[in-house]
Amino acid sequence: MRILVVEDEKNMNRLISEAMEDEKYSVDSCFDGAEALDYALAADYDVIILDVNLPKMDGFTVVEKLRDRGCASPVLFLTARDSVMDKVTGLNAGGDYYLTKPFSFDELRAVVKVMARKYTGNKTNEYSVGDLVVDTDSRTVTRGGEPVDLTSKEFALLEYMIRNKGVVLSREMIENNLWNYDYEGGTNVVDVYIGYLRRKIDKGHDTRLIHTVWGTGWVLREE
Asked: Is residue 164 helix, strand or coil?
């Protein structure tokens, strides 16, 4: 998953970002509301973790502008403002969850997983296509009941594909989800990782699950 962390206190921003990176998410971070708006409109984030009291533009206004412009990324407000009215204001602005400071990082991780799960319409952290099963909580993969050993980036690619099973994903969509703005890789890196996945997921099986849609991208589906 790709996460955006917006927090003006630099040490807290770093701690939250590191907590998300520990979950193997791709993370971008910024420090004010104007930057947050630019980042969120430029990429497709699975979850946006957003402080309310931000320089240049407060978090409530950021979310209102995002929703007005059609951005549907789930937003988790993370703030010391804990009054009922603040929570109502944040949810009415278009936020999805409100977590007050101080908070537990374990709770933060759990909330992010739940928010991403709701975004895809899945009720559990387990996704399946045919006999392929991906558990995003335990980060395990099996096909036909046999374990499949994946690297972190291979798992991230498969997770993105299975969260969007049946949807044709372009190279740009995959790049935007799996790599943050600091990435400076080659133009064929997605093709390389698709090849890695095919060898580990489809090789030796009669039914292929990873399909190329020529001129468009790739799709994970059972045929």
From this structure: coil
Residue type, 60: F
Same domain, 154 and 96: no
Domain count, the chain: 2
d(C-alpha 43, C-alpha 180), whole Å: 9
- In the predicted model, is pLDDT for residue 208 greater than 70? yes
Phi, psi for 120 (deg, rounded to 5): -90, -10
Q: How far apart are CA 132 and CA 201, in angstroms?
A: 8
Cβ neighbours, 10 Å, residue 67 = 15
**Do 14 and 81 lie in a common domain?**
yes
Looking at the DSSP bridge assignments, the partners of residue 133 are: 128, 142
The CATH code of the domain that includes 183 is: 1.10.10.10
Predicted TM-score of the model (pTM): 0.71
Task: Tell me the per-residue pLDDT of 101-155, one tens digit each, with 9 for 90 and over.
Answer: 889 999 999 899 888 776 666 667 788 999 999 998 888 999 999 999 999 889 9
Segments forming the whole domain that contains residue 198 = 126-220
Among the candidates 66, 100, 120, a domain finishes at 120
